[in-house]
Design a protein that fits this description.
Layout: H1 3-24, H2 26-54, H3 62-87, H4 89-96, H5 99-104, H6 109-138, H7 148-169, H8 171-175, H9 180-183, H10 185-194, H11 206-211, H12 216-229, H13 234-269
Helix pairs in contact: 1-6, 2-3, 2-6, 3-6, 3-7, 3-12, 7-12, 7-13, 12-13
Length: about 280
Amino acid sequence: MTVATRQLRASYAFFERNYHLIKRYWAWEMVWLAYSIADSLAVSYIGLGMEVLTGNSVAVDGRYLVLYLLIGTLVWRYLSSIFHWITEVISIERWEGTIEYTLMAPVPRIIHMVGHTAFAVLYSIIFTGVILAATTFLFDLDLSNANLLGGAIVLLAGSFSFVGIGVVGAVLPLLFPERGAQMTHIIVATLLLISGVYYPVEVLPRALEAMSVISPAWYVLEGVRAALIEGASLAELWPFIWPALALALVTVPAGLWTFAQAERYAKRKGKLARNG
């Protein structure tokens, strides 16, 4: 067996472990799916609600607002799902009682992260796809002009950046066993605020609007909206794709380096087996 084959099998082991976790706790996944669908519908119905609230005093295209909000909700659900799965890599190990075995095993951390990340991306695609099917069933959306392939490419490009951000976030549960998992929500909340998920970033104060350029979610949201609402071509989407990929070239190596430093510190201080 070659070294590459052994590493691939080791990476797949983490993928398979997460799959079995989903099978074991399938009831929770159904609860979370139902909540996510209801939440996506509630946000999207704001678009139709604006037509009712403004009456005839202001011309409001409720269908456009529904599509705008629905894209924002689904894209954010996808990206945040990747983030949460990766940040929970330590929480899952503690939960299963395998953290010391995993982090002390002679398996390169990149192999560990690849398996966990591959599952996170696949899970997020399926999870978001189910929500999309449920929401589009209830809304009469016109996607005849949409560039679905271009939107998918922009979404995939942004996934890599969120992987890197997720690895950075995974440091918090590693260093702070009691409340580290909850501390990761500050990262999500900040990105949600500055990325224009439910509104154009132009409405933000100037300082917050300037911060949106460092958020990969902003490029993904703008690119996907351009692809699905305006039917933008792949060439027109490139200004959104390359910044997302460029951010990934920074966040992924930075995340792996930061996690490696935090892991060494946690081992020295005996934080691996602690539970909150």
